[in-house]
Amino acid sequence: MRDQFNQFYIQYRDKIFAYLFKLSGNYSLASDLTQETFTKLLEKYDPQIHTSPLLYRIARNVFFDHQKKEKKFDVLEKNPVSNTKSQYETYALKEEVQELMLALKKLNREEREVLLLATSGDLSYSDISEMHQMSVTNVKVKVHRARTKLRKILNKEK
Q: What is the reported pTM?
């Protein structure tokens, strides 16, 4: 059982972290929430039902529970980029990340969630429809509209 969970953890930790980072915009918060997500999965769910849709649903709920507790919404971290590149590259990347995070904040909550889940690459439209209790067609429409809206927001800012 432990080996099975370890493999599951290794397979999904970076993906869940990336999802939570995109939701929160805060590196350390995403890291903490990633740990909390896996802890809840391990403590509350039978290892036989550990699936990626369940994991993403737990991560989503952990994030929104945190927001309710802290009464903070969409906090952007001041320096989300590591110092492994030249100063110019780091600055340019930091600007792009911040621009994207700000643009994502302009989407409504449901658009942002559905788009982030769809672009994570781990969940099918069917999985997302199950999580949000809507039809697969509705999910596809919402993802398309969110992408279009995000593209317009980003183009308007340039």
A: 0.66
